[in-house]
Design a protein that fits this description.
about 160 residues; four-stranded antiparallel sheet; mainly beta; 16 strands
Amino acid sequence: PTVADGTIYVGCWDGYLYAIDAADGSQEWRYELGTPVTGDASVADETVYIGDWDATLHAISTAGDEEWILPSDVDDARITTKPTIADGVVYVNINRGIIAADSDGRQLWEFQGRRRWFDESSPAVVDGSLFVCGSVDRRTIDGGEEPIGWLYKVV
C-alpha cells in the first residue's frame, strides 16, 4: 500500500485500486483497472500512478477519476512494481523492460529487454540516471539512443 495525505491506496488481485481513509478505514472510492494488481501505487501532484497485469500504466486523480491510461505493446508483459516519479517523468518496470511517460500520459520512450528480468524492483533515479535491478543484471538506462549506460552481472 501507499499512503498520501491521509489516504491509503492499494491495488488488489480483484483488479481494483482502492482509496481507504487512513483515519477510520472507510472506502473513499475504488477504480476498476480490469486486471490483477500486484505492485504498489505512487502518488505525485494529486495523481495516483499504478500498473496492472496487462502492462498498462494508469493515472487516476486522488479523487478517483481516470486521467489517462498508457498500455504497453510489449508481448507477454506485466507491471508488478511501483512506478517511480522524478522530474515530471513516470518510470515503470514491465517484466521485459522499462516505460517512461510524461505527466500527461505520453510515452517518452520504452526499453525492451531480451527476456524477463526487470520485474523484481522499482526503478530509482539518481542525478538524472535511471537505475533498474533484475534477478541477474543491474543496469542504468537513459532515454537517449543508446539506453544502456552500464551492466553489472550479479553472481
